[in-house]
Amino acid sequence: MKSGRKDKVKDEMNKLKDRLKDEILKFLPFQVCSVINKLEDAGYEAYLVGGCTRDMIMGKEPKDWDVTTIAKPDEIKKLFDKTIDTGIKHGTVTVLWGDTKVEVTTYRVDGVYSDNRRPASVGFISSLTEDLSRRDFTMNAVAYSPRRGIVDPFNGVRDIKGKIIKTVGDPDQRFNEDALRMLRAVRFSAELDFKVEDNVLDSIRKNSHLIEKVSSERVREELTRILVSEHPIRFILLRDTHLLQHILPEFEICFYTIQNNPYHIYNVAVHSLHAIENIPPESMLRWVMLLHDIGKPLSKSVDENGVDHFYGHSEKSLHLAMNIFNRLKFPSAFIKRAGKLIKEHDRVIETTCKAVRRAISSLGDDIFLDLLKVKEADIKAQNPEFMADRLTKIENIKSLYRQIKERADCLSMKDMAINGDYLINLGITEGREIGRILNELFEMVIDNPELNHVDKLKEIVLQKYFK
Predict the structure, then answer these.
(1) H or E segment at 127?
(2) 3-state secondary structure of 314
(3) What's the longest Cα–Cα distance across the chain?
């Protein structure tokens, strides 16, 4: 009976692969087919492999194209007019065909992984199956050739259709070879909505400390891809697999910080993850939502009624976020903008034109709408009982912003009708005095935009500063 069931499953999988062979073709651009055909016409086996094959099996159009072949790098370069030595040491040559880039890599076997990240050496081989056996996950170890069809020695097609992440072979060995694979498992779960197999999760827990061997830039890249994915809530897997304590210990504490407050229904970490779900999938905005309350564990106090408060948490969140951004080596422009949003995320803005103009002036017109997105996402991750009125206030502020922009109200010093040169021509020559006067005039104009005309400002200057 068991044998009959296995035969039936095998027969069904073979039929599925036959159907997929034809379905995949509709995703293949002419340029990619041309690269494969040229290799095969020259007598070299060549297969699409990795993420592009996985995506096509899932019915998705790939973003990148990877080909594995029996041809050696120098043989690949002789066949094509335009190539780039992308990773020649590891057998990878990028072939340029029109405006399409195809990474072509020789079948290889990896040497010893001495640093838990990259093999010290690679050896070129003639076996596709042996090449596939060194890959991370079964879903990435499926090869496809338009002429030969699907090659799937590790049942990757079955796992793709079952939406399950399994390693090729022993997970401990895979993760000891390359510790980044542990983060990739979580990232693939978030991007593809796949479940990570239990024994893979167990292995990640056991080997989680190895993530400290991975460069901060690669950790940042994987974390960012988790955050901007369609399922950022899978970030919780980092806590469950013990990876978080090695890469973002400041955030792990937030899972244990309860918010006994009428406005909240989640702990700090889960609130932050739900806030991420409610903001556009832009890396900077999602990092802001991840870290906007990270200072709450350091700010928590309890009043006489047992209600939790987090006074001054914005400043503490900013301090911790700056440490994290620098540790993960984010670009300085990213750090500056994200830091400003974290610092100001709890800022109170009243629904008056004057208050909105002052907020825009203080924050900068370029960042004000992002702050409203942050506030809106924050509210949507709090107690639904208070959500409607607070979201209505945000919409009213947006409406006032549009009115202010349509009227072209003065929002910065450069928008003022007069400047320092004008004051000099009036007879004010001392630099510090010029600056003080311009600042005072700007304060008046922010509150009363109708004053922003040359004649009106001149009259104020003459009356107030030429007595």
Answers:
(1) none
(2) helix
(3) 106
